[in-house]
Amino acid sequence: MVEPVARIRLYKPSEEDDKLVRFVLGKAYMGLLAEANQRAYFHPLMIASWVAMSCIFIQVMHWWPDYDAFGWLSFLKPLPAFASMAVPFMFFIDWRNRPAFEKLTQNTLRKPDIFDIASYYSRSPASGLWILEYGQSFVGLIAVDASPDSTSEITISADTTCEFTSGTSAVATIRHFHVEEKYRKSGVQDDLLEHALRRTFESAEQVQKVRIVYCPLATYIGECLRKYGFRTVEHTSVSGVSFEECALDRSAWEKKSI
């Protein structure tokens, strides 16, 4: 039996790769929505509110344990109250968080690079979109934009016509960085980031810095960035969701690569 082989390959201008990239980027923020919801579930204030409302419900329904009448089984009596009260809290948290992450997803899919991936990332030799695969399975992707528009955050609609110039900027931007959840514990995101940084810095001397704006809810990205010497530049908020801008200078990269 032939063992699957891991490989990092350059994006191919094909319908299959186009669908894959758009699908992955479309679901990436939904994964962060689940993380945001989970953190909210275990917030001390939320837990205290849930317990308080459950106790009120138990009091109204007279579901407190009665050991003398039912023995140890009576301690199961309040459980339905706790379970039923958890549902509206979970619904409220998702209802509150979902619009922001859906808007972020829409904005990502309306970026100029998504409309014509091949043309956009071919304007500079230091740009590229790389896909990590394990056998036939998709593992992750990373996209680096080193074009003159590398720091632009505009969004466009389907009927918008954009003209972009070729060339290489002094500042490159990691526009997309995603690894499937089941592969993150293996640390493959480190290999993907290292590959992209090497290709970017070694392909063009003009590139003096690589930056990324990411959501700290993606903790695996933050850990990966710190390993390679990225420093925090700024904390921002988009649609109520926290983001962090980090940057890596060429000198720091070259020092680490020696």
Kindly describe this structure.
Strand 4 (171-179), helix 7 and strand 5 form a beta-alpha-beta unit. The protein is an alpha+beta fold and 258 residues long. The protein contains nine helices and seven strands. The mean pLDDT is 91. Helix 1 (15-41) runs antiparallel to helix 4 (79-109) and helix 2 (44-61) runs antiparallel to helix 4. It has a seven-stranded mixed beta sheet, with helices on both faces. The longest helix has 31 residues, at 79-109. It has helices at residues 15-41, 44-61, 67-70, 79-109, 112-115, 117-120, 188-203, 219-227, 250-257, and strands spanning 6-10, 128-134, 137-145, 171-179, 209-214, 231-238, 241-249. The protein folds into two domains: 6-13 and 115-257, Gcn5-related N-acetyltransferase (GNAT) (Aminopeptidase, 3-Layer(aba) Sandwich), CATH 3.40.630; 35-108, no CATH class. GO terms for molecular function: N-acetyltransferase activity. Keywords: Membrane, Transferase, Transmembrane, Transmembrane helix. The chain crosses the membrane at residues 40-64, 70-93.
Average per-residue pLDDT, rounded, comes to: 91
Low-confidence stretches: none
Q: Radius of gyration from the CA trace?
A: 24 Å
Please identify the structural class as seen in this structure: alpha+beta
- Can you name the CATH architecture of the largest domain? 3-Layer(aba) Sandwich
CATH superfamily heading of the largest domain? Gcn5-related N-acetyltransferase (GNAT)
Q: Count of helices?
A: 9
Strand-residue fraction? Answer: 15-25%
Number of domains: 2
CATH first level of the largest domain: which class?
A: Alpha Beta
> Sheet bearing the most strands, described?
7 strands, mixed
Could you give the distance between the termini?
39 Å
Principal-axes geometry comes out as elongated
